[in-house]
Structure formats: C-alpha cells, structure tokens
Amino acid sequence: MNKLWAPWRIKYIVNIKTKGCALCAAQKKRNDKKTRIVVRSKHSFAILNTFPYNNGHLMIVPYRHVASLEKLSDAEILDMNKTLIKIKKALKKVLKPEGFNIGINIGKVAGAGIAQHIHIHVVPRWAGDTNFMPVLADTKIVSQSLEELYAKLKKVL
Questions:
Q1: Engineering a disulfide at 76: which of 20, 43, 60, 98 sits with its beta carbon 3.0 to 4.6 angstroms away?
Q2: Per-residue pLDDT tens for 105-150?
Q3: How far is CA 24 from the centre of its chain?
Q4: Measured CA angle at 95 (ends 45, 39), to 5 deg
Q5: pTM
Q6: In CATH, what number does 28-156 get?
C-alpha cells in the first residue's frame, strides 16, 4: 500500500464530525483570512475550498442556509451569479486557467459534501492538469497553498 503524508487532511476528518453547517460557521466567524473567504457581497460569499479538486477551487455560497435552488430568492440567484463572474475574472487574472468547471452538486448522491447548504463550485482547469497520479495512485496533487492563493486573489479583488 502506498502512503501519502497529508497532515492537513485531519481538519477535514475532524470537521466531518462537527455538528452544524461548515459554510454557515465560516461566514459567521467574520475572520475572512482564517476562513479563506475571498469576497463578500450582499447575499453571498466566495470561499476557497479547503479540500480542492484543483488549484483555485472556490465555492460561491448564499448566506442563507438553503438546500435547493428553488428556495433561493431572485436577488440571491442574481447576486450569486455576479459573484461567480467576479471570481472567474479574478481566477483568470491570478492563475490564467485555460478553462473552468462550474457546477452545483444537489444532494448527497450527486456528490454534495455539504448537501444542506447549496453552493456553486468553480474549478479552474488547464490542459494536462490531470496526470498519472490520479490514474495510477488515486492521488491528486494541488501545487499551491491556500494561504498563497488567498493573498493573490485578495490583491485583485
């Protein structure tokens, strides 16, 4: 069996057992640097994913704790989309990705890690950003620290 030393994963393991919504907890802390909230708007915020699929993986989250699109108001939907566009522009400037995966996982069976609080994933992509590691070792490599990326995004936002 291959082992990959990843001590930062303990936060994820511990948080799974934590009661309550991690997204609600993050936005209520009001310590944006610690929670890695890169931008706040009237109805939503953008936060770096602590356990990213790829470098620059963010989530656009409504402040209101709702599980489905149908429960969002028109103002919340518009605000989330404006925040999405703002984040996409910032990621383009900072990371220069060649494309993006943007999507919403609705429900646990659809892959939602936090199914009770809807959010939009924004994942920058580059040609060749998948290599042999995920295929052969079932391991994804993220090449930039969240702290470094947070600082760079805050400069352009």
A1: 43
A2: 998 888 888 889 999 999 999 887 765 444 444 556 666 788 888 8
A3: 14
A4: 15
A5: 0.80
A6: 3.30.428.10
pLDDT at site 110: 83
- Both ends of the chain: CA-CA distance in Å? 43
Catalytically active residues are 119
The helix (run of H) or strand (run of E) holding residue 122 is: strand 120-125
Q: What are 31's strand-pairing partners?
A: none
CA angle 88, 113, 53 (to 5 degrees): 45
Task: Name the strand (E) or helix (H) holding 144.
Answer: none
CA distance 6 to 59: 22
Q: Average pLDDT, whole number, for the chain?
A: 85
Q: ∠118-119-122 over CA atoms, to 5°?
A: 160
